[in-house]
Amino acid sequence: xxxxxxxxYFVFGNFLIAFSSVGLTHLTQLxxxxxxxDLHLLVFVFFSTLLVYNLNLIEGMKSLKTSAFRSVRHxxxxxxxxxxxxxxxxxxxxxxxxxxxxxxxxxxxxxxxxLFALGYxxxxxxxGIKTIRLRELPFVKIFLVAxxxxxxxxxxxxxxxxxxxxxxxxxxxLLFFSRAVFIFAITxxxxxxxxxxxxxxxxxxxxxxxxxxxxxxxxLILLLVFTAGSFIRYHLGFCNLNEFCALLISTLIxxxxxVLINSQRKELFYSLGIESTMIIQWLIVFLSSLL
Length: 291
Description:
Layout: H1 4-12, H2 15-31, H3 39-66, H4 72-79, H5 81-99, H6 104-121, H7 140-161, H8 170-193, H9 195-200, H10 206-210, H11 212-235, H12 241-259, H13 267-274, H14 277-289
Helix pairs in contact: 2-3, 2-7, 2-14, 3-4, 3-5, 3-6, 6-7, 7-8, 8-11, 8-13, 11-12, 12-14
């Protein structure tokens, strides 16, 4: 009970997801033997992630207050609105400051994914459609999340510490694809968690259309695709055996958690357990790199 309050702040306040983005970015640096000493890049990734996810909470605050499907997480968010606002403002200040430390080519590269990330959190006006957040478009959210996360955690360090041309090399494309597939796989459980809330808001998702069990199977299939992609990278010499084994172990842990998903699972199973799979993957690969 004593640990529950700080865990809620860490997880529901989006600090875990921000650290996860840093971990995956550093994972790319490890895999590509890029400099991991660029703190400006990692600080930017942390606070820009925190900013986007907190803006998403702020934008959804009004509907949360009137929703009939309030979870433990939703209740915490409503209760700590000022806390969320404070870190959103702080994140905005730090993100803007860190942008000045990035290369011009990186800033150009970030323009499109950055706009999509903001469109995920705050309403935009689309032609022929009412003002809406991109996450509310039918089946769009999960593809958008996978692409933006792969772009930020794979594309960003490559462009910042090398060049845009690096993205078009086969070894980097395979890494980008594998990262997007992994993020897609672990995002499905969150759509399962949010089924009642999304249905109330009439947001179509994979779980709302196919159900929990089929969605779990799809997530596991995606993890198989991720493993196959990792094996291809190893077979082509784009990663070593230690790294491949580390990725395989982290994938097995992730698959085990997905298998355990059911309607009785508590909020923290998703927000702490599933979300931590990104940190787990980073940690196991990092430790393997020391061998």
